[in-house]
Amino acid sequence: MAKTRVHDLAKEYGMTSKEMLGHLADMKIPAKSASSTLEDAYVSMVRKQLKPILDARAAEIEAEKRAEAEAKTQAEREAKAAEKAKRAEEFAKKSEAEAKKAAEAEAAAETAPEATAEEAAAVDALVEEAPAAE
What we know:
Shape: rod-shaped
Radius of gyration: 44 Å
Number of strands: 2
Largest sheet: 2 strands, antiparallel
Strand order of the largest sheet: 1-2
Order of helices and strands: EHHEH
Number of helices: 3
């Protein structure tokens, strides 16, 4: 008959040796330390008695995994939303800068023909004065 150590059984069920020793004491199974060995009959008794506890623990672990996955998904959504908002803000700033440049260019274009007309009038005046000087 093979014997199982308490710490191996605890590891199999994802609990500490101390927790397993507590369960064994509740079931009146003789074990003093984590390195104590258990007969197969005791091991099968422990497995039957701890099945509800193990199922509950498995459900807790599954719930934790789901919660972590949901939190990760939510964090990814928030990150995407923040990135989208940042891009929209950059686009708005770029559009605003382009509109400002266009307005400045338009204003410059409006004042440029006036200056050219004034210059043309000055040139015409100079041309008219030039023959009079002869």
